[in-house]
Every structure is written in C-alpha cells, then in structure tokens.
C-alpha cells in the first residue's frame, strides 16, 4: 500500500478521538495562560531576557503535546487495534512512519499558532518591555519545531514501552522535576536534556554551551532515538 493512503487513515484515527483533539486544543490555551501569568508577575529591565517571558508557557504547554503523542500511539495497544492496523498495512515501518507523520504535522501547525499567540500575549502583558515581532519570530518558529519534536519523542517512547502510563511516568518527572531541580547543579550536563536543549531557542540570550538551533538539533536527536526504538519495537515484537 502506498504511503499517502496510510497517512490518511492514520489522520482519520487521530481526528476521530476527542481526547487527541482536546490535547491539541490544550497546547495553545495552556501556553498562553501560563505566559500571561508569568509575564504579568515577572520583572523586566536591561539585564532581563525579554524573549523568555513571552514563551514561558511552553514549559507547561509541552505537557499537552506530549500527551497527544503518547495517546495517539498508546491507543494502538488497546483492544487489538494494532493487529487491525498491521493487517491493513503489513509493512510495519511504513505504518509507523505514517503514524509519526500524522502526529508531527498537526502538532507543528498548532505549535506555530501557539508560538504566535504566546508572543502576542507576552507583548500585550509586558507592554513596552516586551519583545518585538521581529525579535520574537525566532521564538515562534522554534516553538513550533520544539513542540513537534517533544510530541514525536513521546510517541517513539510510547511505541517502545507500549504503555502510556510508563511513558508519562518517565517524561513528566524528567520535564518538571529533573530539569528544574538538578539542572543548575549538573555542571552543564543537563543542558543536553531534550527539554532544556530545545528551549534555548525561546530565549533571547543563553550562557550555556548550546545555541538556539544547536539546541533543537539535540532535541531532534533525542526524538530520533526514541522513534528508532519505537520502530524497532513495532517491527520485532508481536502485535
């Protein structure tokens, strides 16, 4: 079967599940909400990174992107859905590639909208202290790419672990505890974690070893490793 109809069938699965549509809708809402709260209470000045407050909410909005990627894959492991999918598409790698594409494309679109909305909210709340559209354009593009990579990272890990609960129990502590608690005490090692590396693109300046785009490359490597592990699991293990 050609790739295009496989991709179309996977997109039909995604748009037919309310939980997945809800997760997509939650990405911009959660991001904009936390951005508004942080920008309203944050301080600004000559030494302050004015770009980061406008994208602060991405730290929490990414949870919805991760939930989207996780749920889209974990749904295949319930009720024999994966057996039906592979009966229709025996070429397992093609099926998994279509699944990843059907996850990545909508998150990229929503992520770009999220970035633009977050920047607009940040500018409105911060008023004259906020970033310009020109300086914030990198953050908008980076936001879309970063959220897409994190959703794919979660999707690949879910395919490897075959469990949404196991995936979320790994990723949520990693993002909300490990990066914050040990990040500044690790001597720069934590800068190469997928979230800290990818979010450099959302900052106006950064003193770490990674730049905006090299940080996204590191996150892409994490996502690629997870997807390769997921593809290996789908190919080698019984449905």
User: Helix/strand/pairing class, anyone?
Assistant: mainly alpha
What is the helical fraction, as a range of percent? over 70%
CA distance, first residue to last residue: 19 Å
Our estimate of the beta-strand percent is under 5%
Q: What best-fitting shape do the alpha-carbon axes yield?
A: globular
Contiguous uncertain segments of 5+ residues: none
Mean pLDDT comes to 88
Specify Rg, calculated over alpha carbons.
Answer: 18 Å
Count the E strands: 0
N-to-C SSE string, H for helix and E for strand: HHHHHHHHHH
- Helix segment tally: 10
Q: Can you summarize the main beta sheet? A: none
Account of the 3D structure:
This protein has 239 residues and is an all-alpha fold. Helix content is 75%, strand content 0%. The protein contains ten helices and no strands. The protein starts with a helix and ends with a helix. The mean pLDDT is 88.
Keywords, please?
single chain; 239 residues; 10 helices
Q: What is this structure's SSE topology?
A:
Blueprint lengths: L2 H14 L1 H24 L9 H4 L3 H17 L6 H8 L3 H35 L6 H29 L2 H18 L12 H5 L13 H25 L3
Helix pairs in contact: 1-6, 2-4, 2-6, 4-6, 4-7, 4-8, 6-7, 6-10, 7-8, 7-10
Short description:
This protein is 75% helix and 0% strand. It has ten helices and no strands.
């Amino acid at each position: 079967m050609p790739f295009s109809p496989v991709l179309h069938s996977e997109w039909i699965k995604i748009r037919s599940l309310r939980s997945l549509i809800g997760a997509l809708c939650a990405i911009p809402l959660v991001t904009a909400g936390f951005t508004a709260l942080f920008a309203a209470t944050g301080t600004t000045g000559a030494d302050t990174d004015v770009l980061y407050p406008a994208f602060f909410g991405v730290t929490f909005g990414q949870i919805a992107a991760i939930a989207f990627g996780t749920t889209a894959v974990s749904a295949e492991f319930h009720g024999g859905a994966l057996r039906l999918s592979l009966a229709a598409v025996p070429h397992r790698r093609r099926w998994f590639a279509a699944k990843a594409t059907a996850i990545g494309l909508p998150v990229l679109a929503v992520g770009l909208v999220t970035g633009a909305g977050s920047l607009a909210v940040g500018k409105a709340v911060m008023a004259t202290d906020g970033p310009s559209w020109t300086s914030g354009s990198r953050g908008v593009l980076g936001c879309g790419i970063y959220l897409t990579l994190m959703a794919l990272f979660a999707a690949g890990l879910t395919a490897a672990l075959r469990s949404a609960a196991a995936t979320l129990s790994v990723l949520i502590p990693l993002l909300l505890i490990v990066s914050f608690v040990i990040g500044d005490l690790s001597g720069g090692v934590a800068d190469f974690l997928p979230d800290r590396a990818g979010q450099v693109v959302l900052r106006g300046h950064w003193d770490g070893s990674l730049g905006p785009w090299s940080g996204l490359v590191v996150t892409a490597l994490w996502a690629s490793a997870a997807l390769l592990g997921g593809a290996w699991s789908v190919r080698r293990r019984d449905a």
